[in-house]
């Protein structure tokens, strides 16, 4: 039987709370599933196939579209707290009682909240290219990043500007990523709507309102946590990853060189190896 890959995993649907969640599952069943929460406006196909397939070589992986985003029905969340509860509802719909959780960017915001409000659900936590509620430098993105991130019809150039360091070497890795992520031709996910984009940016801004006291929430995350980041994230400052690492009681941090927001997609083989070792 052919191995199911990121390119061939069928899109499935689960219904809960009036929402039809679009998701894909791949990798060996019987392991603790790794649920992966996507970045701003991202859909099932915005993950790097090289990363997903390398993770799924060792464990079951579950990708999902948030409500109101891409192929999922429902109303998009306008706060991270709401998004976290939507994702908890999704895990219940799939009958998942214990998961590992990887949140990238906006997905990392939701993952932090999930680990805080449903600690029995999350065994291990991976936070990639993300930051804590209320931290300095989190209240929206700098102008050029916001312009590219909010493009009505995003292009490869927009992704390169946001996700990769503005160096020749990092951009070259970014071009390789663009080739991988466009490789799936059958049953591709639909793009996210402008309404879901605007709802998600409201959630990003609300999360980032300066609030020093909100940082104390991180001390409540009790599961082992791996923080993954590039050394020069232009979207969510790398320094706030170090802040998270200092405040989450059982956390360690990996910073990849010559990388920005999407270090996971610049170094998919290395990131998958590091994440699989941590989860194992």
UniProtKB/TrEMBL annotation:
Pfam families: Abhydrolase_1. Residues 33-266 form the AB hydrolase-1 domain. InterPro entries: AB_hydrolase_1 (IPR000073), AB_hydrolase_fold (IPR029058), AB_hydrolase_sf (IPR050266). Gene3D superfamilies: alpha/beta hydrolase. Keywords: Hydrolase. SUPFAM superfamilies: alpha/beta-Hydrolases. GO terms for molecular function: hydrolase activity. PANTHER family: MONOACYLGLYCEROL LIPASE (PTHR43798), MONOACYLGLYCEROL LIPASE ABHD6 (PTHR43798:SF5). This is Alpha/beta hydrolase. It comes from Streptomyces glaucus.
